[in-house]
Design goal:
310 residues, alpha+beta, Nuclear Transport Factor 2, Chain: A, 2,3-Dihydroxybiphenyl 1,2-Dioxygenase, domain 1, 2 domains, 6-stranded mixed beta sheet, 4-stranded mixed beta sheet, 27% helix, elongated
């Protein structure tokens, strides 16, 4: 019976700790937040890094997160739902769903994550020794599925699974050949239902390039869709970040792309190149190689513009 009472007391105490934790987050009080953790806490957060070891490192992460919290007319949302606690003696485990985001008037922009924690009792007080936030992700894009909700039946999504808010839609004179070129030149992959054809006529194509989708359209005068080769120019270019710009540039050129700028170190911190594909679309390809402070960026940009105009 005493063990049962101790377990109930521990569960009540851990529940109270999370109420304290939530109140501290709501006030954006990082010191009060970190008072809920052990000195040697190990945290697996959903953003920024694989892990944070120790209260100092995790506190800096919390401080960084608080700087991004809404201001002005936006009201922060940080809620914990379905908290379940199992506690015994000096050890406890907890799991819950956490909702994080903001509210502005009637508009709510908030996402759900999963949370699991390990807690210990030190000097009669419960502290969080391990914390893990995560979200499921889509395949093959790898995008986090923050749109999921525990209280709603999955329905038709306004933005389809795997798609981004903005997607390039390339008009090509030979859409089928263009898709094969993008696979060869940039390593693009076919989507499961990536081509729509009717009676042999190409209507729509989709490719996955890294974590992004590219839509392909066949040139069609009736629809007012013209390719760069017909227009003899294009005002739009696509920017492609890759792990190794030199290898990516060489691969694209070998596949038939026209080199416009060989890989060059640029003032904004990218190693940068430009090619034109077989259809006339321009692609800038880059690898970020160094972080440039804003003040230095401004100075280097001024020097760059002076060189361009001389």
């Amino acid at each position: 019976m005493d063990q049962k009472v101790d377990t109930i007391d521990a569960q009540v105490a851990v529940d109270a700790l999370y109420k304290q934790w939530l109140a501290a987050v709501g006030k954006k009080d990082v010191d009060a937040i970190m008072a809920c953790y052990t000195d040697d806490v190990v945290a697996f957060d959903a953003i920024m890094a694989l892990q944070f070891k120790g209260k100092k490192a995790y506190g800096e992460h919390w401080r960084h997160c608080m700087e991004f919290c809404p201001a002005g007319d936006k009201e922060m949302i940080f809620e914990i739902h379905h908290l379940a606690v199992q506690a015994q003696a000096d050890t406890a485990f907890a799991h819950a769903l956490v909702r994080c985001g903001f509210k502005e008037g009637e508009k709510i922009d908030a996402s759900w994550m999963r949370m699991s924690s390990g807690l210990v009792r030190q000097g009669g007080q419960w502290k969080i020794a391990h914390e893990h936030f995560s979200a499921p992700f889509e395949m093959p894009s790898g995008k986090a599925m923050f749109y999921l909700s525990p209280d709603e039946t999955p329905g038709v999504r306004p933005i389809p699974q795997g798609m981004s808010t903005v997607t390039p839609h390339l008009v090509c004179k030979d859409a089928r050949a263009a898709m094969e070129f993008y696979k060869k030149a940039f390593g693009a992959m076919d989507m499961p239902a990536g081509v729509l054809e009717v009676d042999g006529a190409f209507l729509h194509g989709e490719l996955m390039l890294g974590d992004s989708v590219i839509m392909i359209a066949q040139e069609n005068e009736q629809c007012g869709s013209f390719s760069p080769s017909t227009l003899k120019n294009t005002p739009v270019s696509l920017h492609l970040y890759v792990p190794d710009v030199d290898n990516a540039f060489d691969r694209a050129v070998k596949a038939g792309a026209k080199p416009l700028l060989s890989p060059t170190e640029m003032f904004w911190g990218d190693r940068f190149a430009v090619v034109e594909d077989l259809e006339g679309h321009r692609w800038s390809i880059a690898t970020h190689v160094r972080d440039v402070p804003p003040e230095q960026m401004q100075q280097d940009a001024r020097t760059f513009m002076a060189q361009m105009s001389s």
